[in-house]
Amino acid sequence: MIFKYVRAACRLLCLLPFAVQAQSPSADATLYSDVTVIDGTGASPRPQQDILVRDGRIVAVGAHGMLPPESIANARTVDLTDRFVMPGLIDSHVHMATPPNRIQAEATLRRNLYGGVTAVRDMADDLRSVAELARAAQQAEIPAPDIYFAAIMAGRPFFADPRVSAASRGFEPGTAPWMQAIDDRTDLATAITLAKGTGATAIKIYADLPPHLVAAITREAHRQKMMVWAHSAVFPTRPANVIAAAPDSVSHVCYLAYQREPVMLAAYEDRTPVNETLLSLDGEDPVIARLYRDMIRRNVVLDATGSLFVQFDAIRKAHPDRKPLRCTGPTVTRLTRQAWRADVPISTGTDHVSGEEALWPDVHEELFFLARDVGMPPLDVIRSATLIGARAAGQEKDMGSIETGKLANFLVLAADPSADIANIRSIEMTVKRGREYRRQAYRPVTKEEMADGPD
Q1: Tell me, what DSSP letter sits at residue 20?
Q2: I want to staple 329 with a disulfide (CB 3.0 to 4.6 A). Which of 168, 310, 362, 425 is the partner?
Q3: Is omega for the bond preceding 99 within 30 degrees of 0, making it cis?
Q4: What percent of the chain has pLDDT over 70?
Q5: Residue pLDDT, tens place only, 146-200
Q6: Cα–Cα distance between 368 and 391 in angstroms, integer?
Q7: β partners of residue 428
């Protein structure tokens, strides 16, 4: 009942005249005054702070009333007394165009932005569509987070997957610049140059590649100043070999458990789940601990995607005929908890999209998973969802924390998320690149927008 009430309230508010447009930034400054700042670094909240924004960036942060008068002269003032500010959320694992559906993608992106997400990491789709969405998002032509995206590289067997055809129409599978089949005959320098030309900032190493090619792709991508986002097991490449190649991040904490298998699966297409009985029951598995130590040594971020597995467990209880995923929710929770206790940097990725019934971004569930199931304190969860997410996307210099010089990407909340992460849903306003998107102006996603259909 409460969801129906909230949905109805949102629809009424969307009719108000002030809800039509997000405010555009100008050369004039905006002073967000007398607010408690949670900066995203893990530091304690700082009450009674002022944040000065000009031209889409934070130009000063300081104690209330203490910024130089000349710096705030003629600034528009937004009184945030009794409010809380934290950096914008970053979903480090989304898919928006497999196949392309512009209406559906824009609806999901709108829900993300008005729910506090200011950046996402697209983990490989039809990059023709994604690049246009990214351009429109950055220019505020659509209400959407900024989008950073990867081109896929995988072994030739993977390209029989029907998702490839859906995301590379017009190309023979494995030949599109954003979805390339790789083997020992491939000129990797040329392949990565082609991928870079799509606008991608990263290569995603996906499946069906041996260790020497995983390492070679990573070296060449880094040489060409591209990031590498890899599955944590590439099949037949074990997690230890993936991590040894030193990608910038690995996705799916579940896949790390394949390091325990006596015989590694030969191909990604073999969906045999992890033998969870091989893992130590106390949650501190020594084999996994070695992987985590190597990840820390090589500065590899873990994109855990834990809530996906926990939610699927609940679905299977209602629909026991559904095939299991590679791990159960409890195993994913134990592996993520061990990573957190080992100080592995964990970002907040989702890898799924809810339907029109959802009022909030999917990444909220990943935050709740880290807090409720894993046991992370709220400040650690916030750091994962902001600063670590920015690092995973290669954007740490510009976003992820409330600091002078960074983009003005932040949330205004009515309640303290450092006391209870559920207070993330007390959001009153998202500020992205200095533009304000008020929650009361949010237009909920409709069934028609989420329908499958052509772009």
Answers
A1: S
A2: 310
A3: yes
A4: 93
A5: 999 999 999 999 999 999 999 999 999 999 999 999 999 999 999 999 999 999 9
A6: 21
A7: none
C-alpha–C-alpha distance, residues 416 and 286, integer Å: 37
Cα→Cα distances 101→129, 349, 455, Å: 8, 21, 4
Per-residue buried b or exposed e for 69-91, using 16+ beta carbons within 10 Å of the residue's own CB: eeebeebeebebeebbbbbbbbb
Burial (CB count <10 Å: 0-12, 13-18, 19+), residue 294: middle
Query: For residue 8, what pLDDT is reported?
Result: 39
Where do the domains of the chain lie, and which CATH numbers do they carry? 2-86+403-441 (2.30.40.10), 89-392 (3.20.20.140)
Q: Answer yes or no: is pLDDT of 258 > 70.
A: yes
Give, in order, the Cα–Cα distances in Å from 26 to each of 51, 152, 345: 16, 38, 36
Q: Under 8 Å CB-to-CB from 253, ≥6 apart: which residues?
A: 232, 302, 304, 305, 306, 332, 335, 336, 339
Whether the Cβ atoms of residue 174 and residue 180 lie closer than 8 Å to each other: yes
What pTM, to 2 d.p., does this model score?
0.92
pLDDT at 329 > cutoff 90: yes
For the stretch 27-50, what's the b/e string if a residue is b when 16 or more beta carbons lie within 10 angstroms of its beta carbon? eebbbbbbbbbbbbebeebbeebb
Query: For 226-249, what is each residue's pLDDT tens digit?
Result: 999 999 999 999 999 999 999 999
Output the six-digit token pair for 47: 């009450």
Tokens encoding 451: 């329908």
* 68-86 per-position pLDDT tens digit: 999 999 999 999 999 999 9
Confidence of residue 26 (pLDDT cuts 50, 70, 90): very low
Q: What is the CA radius of gyration of the chain?
A: 22
